[in-house]
Specification:
single chain, mainly alpha, two-stranded antiparallel sheet
Length: about 180
């Protein structure tokens, strides 16, 4: 009775990883074909790994909780201080995946571009949140050149604000987030 998906995971992985390694069951033959996790990736290594697996075989996904995990604090891999390296590795993973299948389609290319634009937006947002303004502006400009969205345009405009005004906007955002809870 559990709903599931069976098929090609390659294209959906361009929008981010949705497979937890601790709940994945992988045939040994596929490990031999795809190889193990790339140790040069400290974060986002599972996305790169699952893209390599998906390049070789279809998979199945159960829409049911299989594991429980605790969301970590400041030292976890998903902490905000790790967002920039996580997104950079996800972008590298995306580039590697792009070359795993030579038989591209327009739909596949569109998924790649949309996933890349989403990651570039996340990178610019994280950089701006860390007050790395010049780098955030460059990342937002790259994202806009690849795919225009009003959200990315707003982020680019925010990167043009003086640092004091940007800090004030961050404070307002934090207060409104706390009051919404």
């Amino acid at each position: 009775d559990t709903p599931y998906f069976h098929g090609d995971f390659f294209k959906p992985l361009f929008f981010g990883n949705f497979i937890y390694p601790s709940s994945a069951i992988v045939r040994r033959r596929l490990f031999s074909l795809a190889g193990s996790f790339d140790e040069s990736f400290r974060v986002a290594e599972e996305t790169e790994f699952f893209h390599r697996l998906a390049a070789h075989a279809d998979g199945a996904f159960l829409f049911s909780p299989l594991i429980r995990y605790e969301v970590g604090g400041d030292e976890s891999l998903t902490a905000s201080k790790n967002t920039v390296p996580l997104v950079r590795n996800a972008l590298e993973s995306l580039e590697r995946a792009r070359h795993l299948r030579p038989d591209t389609t327009a739909e596949w290319d569109e998924a790649y571009r949309a996933g890349r634009a989403m990651l570039l937006y996340r990178l610019a947002y994280a950089q701006l949140s860390n007050y790395d303004i010049a780098t955030a502006r460059k990342s937002a400009r790259t994202a806009l050149s690849e795919r225009f969205t009003s959200r990315t345009a707003a982020l680019y405009l925010a990167s043009l604000l003086p640092p004091g005004m940007l800090r004030a906007l961050h404070a307002i955002k934090r207060r409104s987030s706390k009051s919404a809870r």
